[in-house]
Design brief:
alpha/beta, TIM Barrel, 15 helices, globular, binds iron/sulfur cluster
């Protein structure tokens, strides 16, 4: 006979099974479940995923374009960012972007992920000069031009992650990007205090990031966001972050996926000596995300950051492995190679799931009026089947 559940966990799981929206106390009870309660929490999270998504686990075949690694912020865990003049500092030229997109398209990629530091022109005159020399007023201006060129000259679908975005930026991005992304990371203001990971990162202030999520909702653009765990936040603060995302999504319905990303310690970063979160923390947070956000939300954990843990993460309720590239490395975590797609499919099958390719726009949004830019409608429709996922024939033909 299984031991009795603690009353708070039992109440929370009963509410989840009835399809109720869980409150903060329930979320904290679940993420904090004692070992004896954990199997029931995990089973409930996997069951919620099955109700909403079946056994399909998705990924997006992408090229990763580090458009510029200059950034006005200094996050304590960042290995991506460089200052002008530092070894490895670079901003990609437009021709180079198009070349990588062309090579990615030949390998079956559909997504062009534009990843970059936040508003480097606000801090570095060298970058202002770089932009001015090429006819751009701002990095956002350049992102828009690059997105347009990708749409006009390659078969890929842009998905930009340019840092904080205003409503005006989002309206402009919406013309050429099927979706955009900004990790909320955390709603904990504490982490921006002196000595914290966001001490020198003004763009990581939670209220500023929440304002971008709200603006994206008003504009009506599909949005990718998520949490970064293990940077000093508590479990309850992770619950707060999930609830903040849920509240915005309930108002606007535009959040297409929530990523649970784990901090990785690396040489050379300010937090090199900070302990990495244990797999148990990642698993608990994935399960809490599933149960707090409900069966319909897409919940992702990147497979390259926790190799060999597919079954654990799948069992905690995720339904997406994120973007995987057959061409480019993960510039945010360069030490962590992405799995080969055949291996990812095999591991997913071993867990009981079935791997399917999706676009940078999740199936729920493919048929929703206003969510596919007019310039990309034919391109999107040519890729997907009735379910909104990439048709198997297209995956096989391009893979
Ligand atoms: S994590 Fe992002 S915002 Fe922070 S320093 Fe790195 S590039 Fe900049």
């Amino acid at each position: 006979m299984s031991p009795a559940l603690s009353p708070a966990v039992e109440t929370a799981l009963a509410a989840a099974a009835r399809g109720r929206s869980l409150d903060r106390a329930a979320g904290v009870a679940l993420i904090d479940a004692r070992p004896a309660d954990w199997p029931a929490v995990r089973t409930a999270a996997a069951a919620a995923r099955d109700r909403g998504k079946g056994r399909i686990v998705t990924y997006s075949r992408k090229v990763f374009l580090p458009l510029t690694n200059l950034c006005r912020d200094d996050c304590g865990y960042c290995v991506f960012k460089r200052d002008p003049g530092q070894a490895g500092a670079r901003t990609m030229e437009l021709d180079e972007v198009l070349e990588v997109c062309g090579a990615g398209a030949r390998l079956g990629c559909k997504e062009a992920l534009l990843s970059l530091g936040d508003k480097p022109e606000a801090r570095f005159p060298e970058h202002r000069a770089w932009l001015r020399h090429r006819g751009y007023r701002s990095t956002m201006d350049y992102v828009l031009a690059v997105s347009r060129a990708i749409v006009e000259e390659t078969p890929l679908l842009p998905h930009a992650n340019p840092g904080l975005m205003s409503e005006r930026d989002l309206r402009a991005l919406r013309e050429t990007n099927v979706s955009v992304g900004l990790m909320l990371e955390t709603t904990s203001e504490r982490l921006a205090a002196t000595g914290g990971p966001h001490d020198r990162a003004p763009d990581k202030l939670p209220r500023r990031r929440l304002a971008t999520l709200e603006a994206a909702g008003r504009v009506g653009i599909a949005f990718t966001t998520g949490l970064l765990i293990g940077i000093g936040e508590t479990r309850a603060e992770r619950v707060d972050t999930l609830l903040a995302i849920r509240a915005i999504h309930e108002r606007h319905g535009h959040v297409q996926e929530v990523i649970v990303q784990n901090f990785r310690a690396k040489p050379g970063i300010a937090m090199a000596g900070h302990p990495e979160p244990a797999l148990d923390e990642l698993e608990r947070t994935v399960a809490a995300a599933r149960l707090l956000l409900g069966p319909a939300m897409n919940v992702q954990a990147p497979p390259n950051l926790s190799p060999g843990t597919y079954a654990t993460l799948y069992g905690a309720g995720l339904n997406d492995w994120g973007g995987v590239s057959p061409l480019t490395i993960d510039y945010i975590n360069p030490e962590a190679p992405w799995p080969h797609l055949a291996a990812l499919a095999a591991r997913t099958t071993e867990t009981g799931g079935r791997l399917r390719e999706r676009l940078a726009l999740y199936p729920e949004f493919v048929g929703r009026p206003g969510f596919v830019p007019a310039a990309l409608r034919a391109r999107v429709d040519a890729c997907v089947d009735r379910t909104g996922l990439v048709a198997d024939a297209v995956t096989l033909a391009t893979g």
